[in-house]
C-alpha cells in the first residue's frame, strides 16, 4: 500500500519506526500533558494564581500595550498555561490522530486557517462584550443591576 | 462565441480540473467540511459560556468545588480525578481508533475488528461516565438557599485541618430543623384536577433558619468571590440576617431553573455543552457500531479499501478534540 506516513514529531526531535509506534508515542505525550494539567489544577501553585504584570496606565499607547499583552496582563498564569497546553493537545490530536500531518499543505491550511480565524474572531467579540456587560451591570458608581438582596 | 465559458485555458494546471490537488477523496473532504462547521458550532457554545462567565465573573462557581465526586469513593472530595479519567478514556479510544485506521491501511481485517471493538467500548465507558457525572450534578451535594435577588447562599463552618483554618461545607440535611405542619405537594387527586405542582424543595426556608439559629458554628457563604479567589464567608450575625430577610427557596441539586452551586447559567451551560458533546459521543458510538458490523461482514474487504473506517475515525477524533476543550473550560480554567 502506498500510504506514506510522516513519522517525526517535535520537528524531527523524536522519530518513530512505524506508524503504530508513533501513535503510542503521541498517546504517552498527551497523557503526560493531561497529567500536568490535572496536577496543576488540583494543587494550584500560588505563583500561578496572580497576574505577573499590572495593566498599563495612561493614554492610547497603554491601551495598545494592554491589548498586545492581554494574555499576561488580564489572565492568571495558571489559566494561560491550561489554554496553551490544551492547544498543544489539540495540535497533536489533529496532526497525528486525524493524519493532518500527512495531508497536502493546502488541505491543512484550508481547514486550520478557516477555523482558527473564525474562532478567534468569535471569542474576541463575545469575551469583550461579556466584560463590558459586567462593567455596566455591577461596577462603577451607579451599577445597573442590584442583586444584594 | 459560447454564452457560457467551457474552457478556461487552465487545462493541465493544478486547478484546471481532472486532477486532485488536495489528494483527498470526496468522502474525506466532506467529513472535513462537517468537522470545521461543527467545530464552529462548539466554539460558538464555548464562547457563549465565556461571555456569561465574564458577565458574572465575580460570582461564577469554582469548578473544583462542584465536581469533587468519584464513583465508589463516597464522601471524599477528589476534584478533577474522575474527569481526568474520562479524558484519558476518550484519548485512549482515539488511539484504538487510529490503530484501526492503520490496520485498515494494511487490509488486516482481524485487527480492524478488534480495534473498532475497543473503540466502541471506550466510547460507551465515556458516555456512561458522563451520565454518572450528570446524575451526581443533578442530585446535588450540600444544598443551599436562594435569595429573592437570585443569589445562592451556602453553609459551612471553619475547621482546623493540619494547623490550617479551612472553610468546610455543611449539608442542609445535617442541621435543618424539620417542623411539623409544613405544606405538602399539591397533587391533582387531592386538589384542583387541572393544576399540577412541581416537587417541593426538601425543606422550607424557615426550617433552615431555625436549624441555623440553633447551631452556633454554622456560617453562610455567598457566591461573591473575594480578592483571594475564595467565596465570601459572612459573619454569624450577618448569616442569620441574610437567611431571615432574603431567603426565598431551598435548593438541592441542579436543574435548568436553579442550582445549588451558584449562578443559574452555570448549570444551563453545563447541561447544554456537555450534553451536546455527549450526544456527539453517543452518535459516534452508533456510527462506530455500524462500521464495526460492516467490517465483520467483510464489506470493506470486498470494496478493497477501509476508507470508511478512516472517515468515521476523523469524526471520532474530532469528538475527542472537542472534549479536550470542554475539559479545559469547564473543569480547569
From TrEMBL, chain A:
Q: How does it sit in the membrane?
A: Multi-pass membrane protein
From what superkingdom does this record's organism come?
Bacteria
Q: Which InterPro entries match?
A: Cyt_c_oxidase_su4_prok (IPR005171)
> Source species, please?
Winogradskyella echinorum
Instruction: Respond yes or no to whether keyword Cell membrane is given for this record.
Output: yes
Name of this chain's protein? Cytochrome C oxidase subunit IV family protein
Q: Which keywords does UniProt give here?
A: Cell membrane, Membrane, Transmembrane, Transmembrane helix
Transmembrane ranges, per UniProt, are: 23-43, 110-127
Localization:
Cell membrane
UniProtKB/TrEMBL annotation, chain B:
Instruction: Recall the taxonomic lineage recorded for the source organism.
Output: Bacteria, Pseudomonadati, Bacteroidota, Flavobacteriia, Flavobacteriales
How does the protein's chain sit in the membrane according to the entry? Multi-pass membrane protein
Q: Out of the domains of life, which is the source? A: Bacteria
The organism encoding this protein is Winogradskyella echinorum
Which positions fall inside the Heme-copper oxidase subunit III family profile domain? 1-333
The record's InterPro entries line, in alphabetical order, gives: Cyt_c/ubiquinol_Oxase_su3, Cyt_c_oxidase-like_su3, Cyt_c_oxidase_su3-like_sf, Cyt_c_oxidase_su3_a-hlx
Query: Transmembrane segments in this chain: where?
Result: 30-51, 80-100, 112-132, 269-300, 312-332
Keyword Phosphoprotein in annotation = no
Stated name of the protein = Cytochrome c oxidase subunit 3
The record's family statement is: Belongs to the cytochrome c oxidase subunit 3 family.
Q: Write the record's keywords in alphabetical order, separated by commas.
A: Cell membrane, Membrane, Transmembrane, Transmembrane helix
Amino acid at each position: 500500500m502506498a500510504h506514506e506516513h510522516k513519522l517525526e514529531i517535535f520537528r524531527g526531535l523524536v522519530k518513530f519506526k512505524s506508524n503504530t509506534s508513533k501513535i503510542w508515542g503521541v498517546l504517552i505525550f498527551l497523557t503526560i500533558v493531561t497529567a500536568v494539567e490535572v496536577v496543576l489544577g488540583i494543587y494550584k501553585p500560588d505563583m500561578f494564581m496572580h497576574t505577573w504584570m499590572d495593566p498599563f496606565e495612561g493614554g492610547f499607547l497603554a491601551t495598545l500595550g494592554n491589548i498586545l499583552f492581554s494574555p499576561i496582563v488580564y489572565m492568571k498564569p495558571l489559566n494561560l498555561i491550561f489554554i496553551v497546553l490544551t492547544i498543544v493537545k489539540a495540535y497533536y490530536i489533529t496532526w497525528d490522530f486525524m493524519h493532518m500531518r500527512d495531508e497536502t499543505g493546502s488541505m491543512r491550511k484550508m481547514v486550520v486557517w478557516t477555523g482558527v480565524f473564525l474562532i478567534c474572531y468569535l471569542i474576541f467579540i463575545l469575551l469583550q462584550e461579556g466584560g463590558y456587560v459586567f462593567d455596566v451591570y455591577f461596577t462603577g458608581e451607579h451599577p445597573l443591576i442590584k442583586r444584594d438582596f | 462565441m459560447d454564452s457560457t465559458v467551457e474552457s478556461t485555458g487552465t487545462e493541465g494546471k493544478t486547478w484546471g480540473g481532472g486532477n486532485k490537488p488536495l489528494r483527498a477523496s470526496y468522502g474525506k473532504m466532506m467529513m472535513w467540511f462537517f468537522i470545521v462547521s461543527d467545530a464552529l458550532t462548539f466554539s460558538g457554545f464555548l464562547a457563549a459560556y465565556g461571555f456569561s462567565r465574564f458577565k458574572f465573573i465575580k460570582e461564577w462557581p469554582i469548578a473544583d468545588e462542584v465536581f469533587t465526586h468519584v464513583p465508589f469513593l463516597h464522601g471524599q472530595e477528589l476534584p478533577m480525578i474522575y474527569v481526568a479519567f474520562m479524558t484519558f478514556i476518550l484519548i485512549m479510544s482515539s488511539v484504538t481508533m487510529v490503530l484501526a485506521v492503520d490496520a485498515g491501511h494494511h487490509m488486516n481485517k482481524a485487527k480492524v475488528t478488534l480495534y473498532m471493538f475497543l473503540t466502541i467500548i471506550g466510547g460507551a465507558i465515556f458516555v456512561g461516565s458522563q451520565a454518572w457525572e450528570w446524575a451526581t450534578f443533578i442530585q446535588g451535594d450540600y444544598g443551599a438557599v436562594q435569595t429573592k435577588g437570585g443569589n445562592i447562599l451556602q453553609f459551612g463552618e471553619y475547621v482546623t485541618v493540619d494547623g490550617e483554618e479551612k472553610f468546610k461545607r455543611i449539608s442542609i440535611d445535617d442541621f435543618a430543623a424539620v417542623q411539623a405542619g409544613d405544606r405538602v405537594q399539591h397533587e391533582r387527586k387531592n386538589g384542583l384536577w387541572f393544576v399540577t405542582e412541581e416537587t417541593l424543595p426538601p425543606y422550607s426556608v424557615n426550617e433552615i433558619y431555625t436549624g441555623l439559629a440553633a447551631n452556633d458554628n454554622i456560617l453562610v457563604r455567598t457566591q461573591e468571590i473575594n480578592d483571594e479567589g475564595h467565596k465570601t464567608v459572612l459573619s454569624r450575625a450577618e448569616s442569620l440576617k441574610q437567611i431571615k430577610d432574603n431567603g426565598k427557596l431551598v435548593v438541592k441539586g441542579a436543574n435548568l431553573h436553579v442550582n445549588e452551586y451558584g449562578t443559574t447559567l452555570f448549570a444551563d451551560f453545563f447541561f447544554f455543552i456537555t450534553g451536546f458533546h455527549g450526544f456527539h459521543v453517543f452518535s459516534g458510538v452508533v456510527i462506530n457500531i455500524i462500521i464495526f458490523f460492516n467490517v465483520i461482514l467483510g464489506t470493506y474487504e470486498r470494496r478493497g479499501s477501509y476508507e470508511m473506517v478512516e472517515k468515521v475515525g476523523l469524526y471520532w477524533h474530532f469528538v475527542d478534540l472537542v472534549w479536550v476543550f470542554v475539559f479545559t473550560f469547564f473543569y480547569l480554567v
